[in-house]
Design a protein that fits this description.
The chain has 181 residues and is α+β, with helices and mostly antiparallel strands. Helices cover 33% and strands 28% of the residues. It has a domain of 124 residues: Gcn5-related N-acetyltransferase (GNAT) (Aminopeptidase, 3-Layer(aba) Sandwich). α1 crosses α3 and α5 crosses α6. The longest helix has 16 residues. It comes from Protofrankia coriariae.
Length: 181
Amino acid sequence: MTVAWRRLDEPDFALLRGWLEQPHVARWWNHESTSEAVHRDFGPAARGEEPSEDFLALLDDRPVGLVQRCRLADYPEYRDDLAPIVDVPAGAMSIDYLIGEPAQTGHGLGTRMIASMVARTWPDHPEATCVVVPVVAANRVSWRALEKAGLRRVGQGPITPDNPADDPLHYVYRVDRPSTS
């Protein structure tokens, strides 16, 4: 089944709130799920006021997950967290992702979502040189999905985790733009 995409919009926020409250999402995203928090944190991108991009992953036109994508140059603090651990070239992008529907976990959907969004990044962002993704080392499911999607581990080091319960150790994954030759 092919993953399709559409931009997250404000009418999707109730769905996103429900996903953020799911235990398998809340454990790693550790994001407030109140209506106010979702509007505050996702509204600017949905309205085009912020340079990040939020996409709903769709299977048969049904939303099942979310991918956030950004240029690291647009978020210097985020880029600066990565720079002591790995080279962050000009044009580097990053993604974050979640599968919202619990029944969809454990079946390879995360890998398909990651691979699909990475493949979409090259035509969407001709200036993109690579996709760099940090993941908490304890989140084995997430970093295994990155590996299965073709990203390779290029470094590890401390980054403040989203969830204060986690150790700061992160693995950093990268995939470079395919050569055109």
